[in-house]
Specification:
Blueprint: E1 4-5, E2 8-9, H1 14-26, H2 29-49, H3 55-64, H4 80-94, H5 99-110, H6 123-137, H7 146-155, H8 161-173, H9 185-192, H10 201-206
Antiparallel strand pairs: 1-2
Helix pairs in contact: 1-3, 2-3, 2-6, 3-5, 3-6, 4-5, 5-6, 8-9
Length: about 210
């Protein structure tokens, strides 16, 4: 039986169920609930904007977008967004989804913390970012109704979410501070990691191997 929250049906295919189970097993309740809210908000934003999208691909993108913060899937040598994107692509390939569709999901996850650019790309890419921005930053908060927000939060609570998600970000990236160069997660480490010094793009240029 399909689950419907705030008028949004959760995909119920075998692929969607297995994606959800993978995230349930790997992620904390905080990240799991956040990921489900991202999907729900993404769908509602898509409807509001009149955008056509593939609900199943959007679901995988939303559910896997923070998988790189988990102990199971985090690496040390690349951005956490790429961890989740790589795992999503492997998962889709294993389920017979490849080519452009799998790449679309990879891109949606890889770019979900990159401001503005995803919004000009394919629907699933743009909507994963819109869902994340609404849940984490409050961007688009008034674009959906208070009743819809209440139903979503009732199904997937966000107790002390602002502080808890920042703690999850810190935990997921503190061991690889260099991967935050040039992206918004440098702000997280600047607040929560003692001794962190963010990279400076100007200094990189000035100190490159080029003589002038």
């Amino acid at each position: 039986m399909r689950t419907t929250i705030a008028g949004v049906q959760i995909p119920d295919s075998a692929l969607a169920r297995e994606a959800e189970q993978l995230v349930r097993e790997a992620a904390t309740p905080l990240v799991y609930d956040h990921s489900r809210r991202v999907f729900l908000f993404a769908v509602l934003r898509g409807r509001e904007l009149g955008v056509d999208f593939d609900p199943e691909l959007l679901y995988v993108g939303a559910m896997f977008h923070d998988l790189g913060l988990t102990e199971t899937y985090r690496r040390h040598d690349q951005r956490f967004e790429i961890d989740g994107a790589d795992q999503a692509r492997r998962f889709l390939h294993a389920h017979g989804v490849d080519g452009e569709a799998a790449q679309r999901v990879w891109t949606a996850i890889a770019l979900h913390t990159t401001p503005e650019i995803p919004l000009h790309m394919d629907a699933e890419i743009a909507l994963v970012t819109r869902g994340v921005e609404l849940d984490v930053l409050g961007i688009g908060y008034e674009a959906i109704s208070a009743a819809q927000r209440e139903q979503i939060v009732a199904a997937h609570p966000r107790p002390d979410f602002k502080n808890q998600i920042l703690a999850a970000f810190t935990d997921g990236i503190a061991h690889r501070p260099g991967t935050t160069f040039g992206n918004v997660k440098a702000d997280v480490l600047a607040h929560y990691m003692p001794g962190f010094v963010r990279g400076d793009f100007v200094e990189v240029i000035k100190n490159s191997a080029w003589p002038q």
